Amino acid sequence: MIQAEMVEATEFPELANRHGVSGVPQTTINDGMAHVVGAVPEGNLLAEIQRVLAG
Amino acid sequence: MAQLLNDDIIKQIREVFDDGLKNPVHLMFFGSVDNCQYCGETRQLAEEVAAISDLISIEIYDLDADADLAAKYNVDKAPGLVIAAKEGDQVTDFGVRLAGIPSGHEFTSLIQDIILVSSRDSGLNPQTREFLKGLEKPILLQVHVTPT
After folding, report:
1. Is residue A3 domain-resident?
2. In a domain, A27, yes or no
3. Within an 8 Å CB–CB cutoff, is residue A25 touching chain B?
4. Partner of B116 at 20 to 30 A CA spacing, among B67, B93, B107, B123?
5. Cβ partners under 8 Å of residue B88, min gap 6
6. Whole-prediction pTM value?
């Protein structure tokens, strides 16, 4: 149910643009439903996932 | 093409693998003949890493020629790498993907991903695992990085 993909942003600029990447690392959830810039502690990522699922 | 990993690096990786690799890992590389600047280097890098340990196997695929397999594993970028588990002939997907060349710091991510999949343990805390067990909708996490 979960897929995690590292995306080398300079090779996929269209996706990076679409996801509004302004700094790296940026974690994008479900193709733009949420974004987190910088390192993400486990609890914060879980909270973001829960927010996306609730939204 | 000349070897990408020099002897020193290979020695270091071998030490890390000797310590960290517990179970077989299967790499599935997806390249493309069209407009793929880093496919050749990424493939070679993955093959050189796989050659370091008997616990790592690798298969080479093409995004177009192997479109069914790419769709099955939800790979839509080249170069793309699926880091999966393997027991005998059985490949188990843990959803771990790399898109683009894992160079610079991201080379460390490749090595760590291999060790993580080899451990068969996400390392997540019990509350997180409990929540994720109940997931009813798929979650896609894409971590944009740059190779510096």
Report:
1. no
2. yes
3. yes
4. B67
5. none
6. 0.96
Instruction: Check CB contact under 8 Å for A15 and B100.
Output: no
User: Using a CB-CB distance cutoff of 8 angstroms, which residues of chain A are in contact with residue B74?
Assistant: 3
Task: Count structural domains, chain A.
Answer: 1
Please state the CATH superfamily assignment of the domain spanning residues B7-133 in this structure.
Answer: Glutaredoxin (3.40.30.10)
Report how far residue B142's alpha carbon sits from residue B99's, in angstroms, rounded to the nearest whole number: 10
pLDDT in tens, B107-133: 999 999 999 999 999 999 999 999 999
The reply to whether B31 touches chain A by the CB within 8 Å rule is no
* A53 contact B CB<8A: yes
pLDDT in tens, B77-99: 999 999 999 999 999 999 999 99
Find which of B82, B144, B145 to mutate to test the A interface (most A CBs within 10 Å of its CB).
B144
Q: A3–B106: do the CB atoms touch at under 8 Å?
A: no
Of A3, A8, A53, the CB nearest to B74: A3
Complex confidence, ipTM: 0.98
Whether B112 and chain A come into contact, CB under 8 Å, resolves to: no
Residue ranges making up the domain that contains A20:
13-54
